[in-house]
Amino acid sequence: MPAPAPRKNHKVLGRLSLPERTFVADALRTETVGGVLLLAAAIAALIWANTPIRESYESVRDFHVGPAALGLDLSIEHWAADGLLAVFFFVAGIELKRELVAGDLRDPRAAALPVVAALSGMAVPALVYTLVNVTGGGSFDGWAVPTATDIAFALAVLAVIGTSLPSSLRAFLLTLAVVDDLFAILIIAVFFTENLNFAALGGAAVGLGVFWLLLRGGVRGWYVYVPLALVIWGLMYNSGVHATIAGVAMGLMLRCTTRKDEGEQRSPGERIEHLVRPLSAGLAVPLFALFSAGVAVSGGALGEVFTRPETLGVVLGLVVGKAVGIFGGTWLTARFTRASLSDDLAWPDVFAVSSLAGIGFTVSLLIGELAFAGDKALTDEVKAAVLMGSLIAAVLSGVLLKIRNAKYRRLWEDEERDEDLDGIPDIYEQDNPAYHLRMAEIHERKAAEHRRLAEVTGGASEGNDGPA
Q1: How far is the CA of 65 from the CAs of 62, 69, 165, 284, in angstroms?
Q2: Which residues contact 272 (CB under 8 A, 6 or more apart)?
Q3: Residue 340: alpha-carbon gap to chain centroid
Q4: By three-state DSSP, how is residue 237 classified?
Q5: 384 by DSSP, 3-state: which?
Q6: 11-192+242-415 is a CATH 1.20.1530.10 domain
Q7: 335: exposed, middle or buried (C-beta count within 10 Å: 0-12, 13-18, 19+)?
Q8: Residue with the larger pLDDT of the pair 10 and 204
């Protein structure tokens, strides 16, 4: 009886299949554009809120619109946070469903590393915040603020700086962010839900059931699903559960596998994500940033960020907690389980991306609003802390990624070098005797050219010196 073959370590996020590679590339391109728009909206909000026309910013942000009879007489700021962000979380739900049924999260062994890394990357920032506020006598309400990562900003920084970094590193960040979004959603649903309206919640549940039955029945047409989605969203909002949960739930219900027997090229989830993602990245998230990031910033206010325990906890949680949590969770998982990183990655790469995950913008701002809803001044200070922590994390990770990118660029240049000009990179011919013979001839020819040049130069010098 032959001996059983030894089990190999499962490579997490190694070389991607062509469909996954295409998906990651498309997501990176879209999120990069979304990250740029998000940054522009945040800068516009800060300028608008810190100039003499700041009163107009507050007037627009606090302007109420909507049917009061339906409990939806909301300010523009709330429409952006509760309404438009539901679109963002709808896309996040589709991404999560795809990873669960067709991506890396489908295999429990492959899922172990990003799940543990994401959990550690949320637990450690919460612990850092708690320790800072225990020693400083601050409020524990904001423990969840530094736990989230803004994938649009993070991918934008990675795309701009990491032009030569391995694709596995981008895939690692994308998968990590999907898991991070899932737990951020759970935090919002569990810890920031109060005063439940069970009638509205039951109505939302019925609406979600109808939504699911229509999908399973193969019913098509945006004119069916969009009105139903709006009803579900309105009922969820009035139930006391954060309205973005409705977006996540509907995203998770979409089918993200193809039916080859029916000739499907793309699953319904992929098609709808393709249509809705530009709305999320190009409109919903930037408008949320425009009406959430507009906080008054002054020298004194920035100084208080590092002295008040609530705001200092947020900054340290994002900058220190995220990096230590994600890197530590990844290393421990790879050390004590059969999961391991791709051969293309090194631990300095993982630490750089772990620092990059400290950019917590969209969801961190949302949780900050929910955590300190009764204290407008503290809410603004926590928002300033989120901006400051995200900026520091972006700068630090940018430096680390720049260093790693330079190294990979040198490696790429070495791999592409073709000194014998035969169309084949030299690295693939190093074991070929003919290659070494050609290289010896090339080097001898170059040496002969240098000798002839030296003789010509020397002879000209002697001829010039004679008459003198």
Answers
A1: 10, 12, 47, 17
A2: 94, 254
A3: 21
A4: helix
A5: helix
A6: yes
A7: exposed
A8: 204
